[in-house]
């Protein structure tokens, strides 16, 4: 197809043999230098369709980015960057950088100063780097808009057009979208030159021999959830898929610490180590393989009975590849996916593509785990009793102990079980279920399909009755508000990405003139609070801190020098307290309306809770709190 020979070698390494339809149609056009509009569903192989031509044509070493790929979410940005890395395995001089919210600025700034050839990023963080003067787009020769319709739905249209305007006029542009709404059509007409339009129908793939289930769980509880699944599922061999190399190592390490036979393979693992690890899995010396998508390509191990998507993949093609590791050659298999509330769109996309429902699986509870442990404990005793010669030797020792210490045999057996069990308790405590209950309840509300989502979202808040206060949340103050044109969706998107939070972690959001109030979990880890405090929205530091409540009505506040002042609005003070807006009235979150309802009198102002939000740092624009969901 005219690709660079070193790129072809990399494709052979990862097991690619024939191009998909979108690749076969797109790659020759891009290699010719023409612009492309690709209309293709998620999961058709779009990433390779634009990555391979870019890698074949790029001239590394300029010190500034030559290629820019925009993706709507940090998850997609990471996946695209990892794909580039695998295809560039034999191009060591090519330097890549993922740029997204949730990662410290310092690491990205350092890489940009050293010089990179290809940047893959989300619009919000790209805009932040442009505002800082850290990202130079003047030498961009190749620009890709991946999932352009999703960027539009998430409120990135203004950011995308700003970025496009900052790039040279003479460049090659590839725009990929599942749909072609009017705004995407306008962007393609304005910024692309005589593009070749390529339309590929999505390929439906089914796996009838594989039982597909999912568990709704927050990101922070995935390791515990995985442990419970391992406890209750009767599996032979298992592959656990993670999105990143680092996560594959971390999960494998945590599983080993909990007594499981687990190992990781990813792009950093040498080929000889990978081969040895796979052989251990085949022979039964290893039970659990934690892998990334690229590392597991072409893997065929007969004893794999279960696939667990620890991180849900960002496209349906990857999902089908993953679960295809089980249920082979007429055998049955099980696929279990962990789904955070923010990932509903992809869950529904998988169901549409495979035309098979994914059945929700309740997180195994304490009672179920304990019953499984007791059953295995019984089986272990039964198996040990069959070893007659060894039993006889120990029986004499126990008889001697019982006679000399006058202790019942049952107590001696229990004491030996304690010795065998060590410090790890045999049974879980019922209290261990409490930490999962809130997330399950929140996710159940989020995944409720009773009625059109848009209609439920657009109902007036007053029709829903008073909002129930949650004891597990506390109020935080951030230093952006109506004056900065901030929207609730921007707040949720920025905090969710920087702090690793899910939708269920947010309570009420109240936006005032110069600050906003957000309810977040009480027990946020210190590192999460530190990252959140350094977060920016629209380029402005939010300086997140715990809110101290409203200032006393009619009284002044005292600054650091001890001077007394009057708060001209008699409502909020410098110390983080809050109350009335500058005109003395309480606002709705959209800044409209001046009346105070009964609820706003009770709550100290109107509020908003997240329904859908951006998966990236925000920089102005963006959709507000009431908006159609992204899926």
TrEMBL record:
Query: What does it catalyze?
Result: ATP + H2O = ADP + phosphate + H(+)
Residue ranges under compositional bias (Basic and acidic residues)? 542-618
Q: Where is this motif: Q motif?
A: 1-24
Q: Which residues form the Helicase C-terminal domain?
A: 222-369
Location in the cell reads: Cytoplasm
Occurrences of domain Helicase ATP-binding (ranges): 27-198
Give the EC number.
3.6.4.13
Q: Which gene codes for it?
A: deaD
Domain of life from the UniProt record: Bacteria
Q: What is the lineage of its organism?
A: Bacteria, Bacillati, Actinomycetota, Actinomycetes, Micrococcales
Instruction: Write out the ranges of the annotated region (Disordered).
Output: 445-468, 540-631
In this protein, which residues make up the domain named DEAD-box RNA helicase Q? 1-24
The UniProt entry's sequence similarity note says: Belongs to the DEAD box helicase family. DeaD/CsdA subfamily.
The keyword Cytoplasm is assigned to this record: yes
Q: What is this protein called?
A: ATP-dependent RNA helicase DeaD
Which Gene3D superfamilies does the record associate with it? Answer: 3.30.70.330, P-loop containing nucleotide triphosphate hydrolases (3.40.50.300)
Q: Which InterPro entries match?
A: CsdA_RRM (IPR034415), DbpA/CsdA_RNA-bd_dom (IPR005580), DEAD/DEAH_box_helicase_dom (IPR011545), DEAD/DEAH_RhlB (IPR044742), DEAD_box_RNA_helicases (IPR050547), DeaD_dimer (IPR057325), DEAD_helicase_DeaD (IPR028618), Helicase_ATP-bd (IPR014001)
User: Which terms does the UniProt entry file under GO BP?
Assistant: cellular response to cold; ribosomal large subunit assembly; RNA catabolic process
Summarizing the function annotation, the protein's role is:
DEAD-box RNA helicase involved in various cellular processes at low temperature, including ribosome biogenesis, mRNA degradation and translation initiation.
């Amino acid at each position: 197809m005219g690709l660079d020979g070193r790129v072809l070698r990399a494709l052979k390494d990862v097991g690619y043999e024939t191009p998909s339809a979108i690749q076969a149609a797109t790659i020759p056009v891009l290699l010719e230098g023409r612009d492309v509009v690709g209309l293709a569903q998620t999961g058709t192989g779009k990433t390779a369709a634009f990555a391979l031509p870019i890698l074949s044509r790029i001239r590394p070493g300029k010190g500034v980015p030559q290629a820019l790929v925009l993706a709507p979410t940090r998850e997609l940005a990471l996946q695209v960057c990892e794909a580039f890395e695998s295809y560039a395995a034999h191009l060591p001089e090519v330097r890549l950088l993922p740029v997204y919210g949730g990662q410290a600025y310092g690491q990205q700034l350092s890489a940009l100063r050293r010089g990179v050839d290809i940047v893959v990023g989300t619009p919000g963080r790209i805009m932040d780097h442009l505002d800082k003067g850290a990202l130079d787009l003047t030498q961009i020769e190749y620009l890709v808009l991946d999932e352009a319709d999703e960027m539009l739905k998430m409120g990135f249209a203004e950011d995308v057009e700003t970025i496009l305007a900052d790039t040279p006029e003479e460049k090659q542009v590839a725009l990929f979208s599942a749909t072609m709404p009017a705004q995407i059509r306008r962007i393609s007409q304005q910024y692309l030159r005589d593009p070749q339009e390529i339309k590929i129908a999505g390929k439906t793939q089914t796996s009838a021999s594989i039982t597909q289930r999912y568990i709704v769980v927050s990101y922070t509880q995935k390791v515990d959830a995985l442990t419970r699944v391992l406890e209750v599922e009767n599996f032979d061999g298992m592959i656990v898929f993670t999105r990143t190399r680092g996560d594959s190592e971390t999960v494998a390490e945590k599983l080993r610490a909990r007594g499981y036979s687990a190992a990781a393979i990813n792009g950093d693992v040498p080929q000889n180590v990978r081969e040895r690890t796979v052989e251990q899995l085949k022979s039964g010396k290893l039970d659990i393989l934690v892998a990334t998508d690229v590392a597991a390509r072409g893997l065929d191990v007969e004893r794999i009975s279960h696939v667990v998507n620890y991180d849900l993949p960002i496209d349906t093609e990857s999902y089908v590849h993953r679960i295809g590791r089980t249920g082979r050659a007429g055998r049955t298999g099980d696929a279990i996916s962990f789904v955070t509330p923010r990932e509903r769109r992809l869950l529904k996309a998988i169901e549409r593509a495979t035309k098979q429902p994914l059945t929700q699986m309740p997180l195994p509870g304490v009672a179920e785990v304990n019953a499984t442990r007791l059953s295995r404990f019984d089986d272990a005793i039964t198996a040990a009793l069959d070893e007659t010669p060894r039993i006889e030797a120990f029986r004499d020792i126990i008889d001697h102990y019982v006679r000399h210490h006058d202790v019942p045999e049952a107590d001696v057996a229990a004491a030996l079980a304690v010795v065998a069990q060590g410090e790890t308790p045999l049974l879980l405590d019922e209290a261990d279920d409490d930490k999962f209950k809130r997330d399950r309840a929140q996710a159940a509300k989020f995944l409720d399909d009773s009625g059109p989502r848009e209609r439920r979202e657009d109902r007036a808040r007053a029709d829903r009755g008073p909002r129930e206060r949650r004891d597990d949340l506390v109020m935080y103050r951030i230093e952006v508000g109506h004056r900065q044109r901030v929207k609730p969706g921007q707040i949720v998107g920025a905090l969710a990405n920087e702090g690793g939070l899910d939708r269920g972690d947010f309570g009420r959001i109240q936006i005032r003139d110069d600050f906003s109030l957000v309810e977040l979990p009480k027990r946020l880890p210190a590192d999460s609070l530190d990252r959140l405090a350094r977060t920016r929205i629209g380029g402005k530091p939010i300086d997140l801190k715990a809110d101290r409540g409203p200032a006393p009505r009619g009284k002044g506040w005292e600054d650091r020098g001890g001077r007394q002042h009057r708060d001209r609005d008699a409502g909020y003070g410098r110390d983080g307290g809050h109350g009335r807006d500058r005109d003395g009235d309480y606002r709705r979150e959209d800044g409209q309306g001046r009346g105070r309802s009964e609820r706003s009198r009770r709550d100290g102002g109107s509020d908003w809770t997240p329904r859908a939000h951006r998966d990236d740092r925000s920089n102005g624009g963006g959709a507000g709190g009431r908006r159609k969901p992204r899926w």
